[in-house]
Amino acid sequence: MMVLLGIAIIVAGFLLRFHPLLVILVSAAVTGLAAGLDPLAILAAFGKAFNDARYVSIIWIVLPVVGLLEANGLQERARGLIAKMRGATVGRFLTFYFILRQMLAAVGLTSVAGHPQTVRPLVAPIAEAAAETQAGTLSDKDREEVRAWAAATDNIGLFFGEDIFLAIGSILLIKGLLEQYGIVLEPLQLSVWAIPSAVAALLIHGFRLWRLDRRLHAQRTRDDAGVK
After folding, report:
1. CA-CA distance, 57 to 50, in Å (whole number)?
2. Average confidence (pLDDT) over 130-153
3. pLDDT band at 5, cuts 50/70/90?
4. What's the CA gap between 118 and 78, in Å, rounded?
5. DSSP state of 164
6. How far apart are CA 192 and CA 197, in angstroms?
7. Assessment of whether the complete model's pTM goes beyond 0.85
8. How confident is the model over 86-109, as a mean pLDDT?
9. By CB distance 3.0 to 4.6 Å, which of 146, 148, 150, 200 could disulfide with 124?
């Protein structure tokens, strides 16, 4: 039971708002010592875990590149491009991005798009530019709402698209859990049944984005009527 002290440390550390990385390191060290491991064995376990998940460090390469692109006017060019496109709306653009995100996630490319590398530098600015074209000048509240829609579109598209991929962790977890109860299923059978959920998510979220377009258009109409 002593090895469960690590969980208590994590809970206490998060409640006291200590640095998450420090809390996890201390928790892992305490768990290892409670399990009878010597410090060198614990250090070796840390090294093995880091080596097995070394692809995570790629994000530290992506972030400077995104920052460099933003500093050289990436957002301004994206805004200018969407402003020149006739018929471009927030709903249509985000629906297109939603479909793209789902398709990429369905084939396992979950890291191709995302908040730091796509939503923050490209998707959100383009959505804001489209909203300005539809509704005119945006208030700070409206601007934050459009950014939230961009972030939500990425989250929902990824969540309901990745389960279609055979080798995603959630599919393998479900397969392993069902096998414990004597239900043997192949990953393909589980991923096929994720397709209706993905289609339903597209229809529901697409409808919500359509309503957003209607609301922005109505706002522009009211503003024009007020000016006249």
Report:
1. 9
2. 87
3. confident
4. 12
5. G
6. 10
7. no
8. 88
9. 150
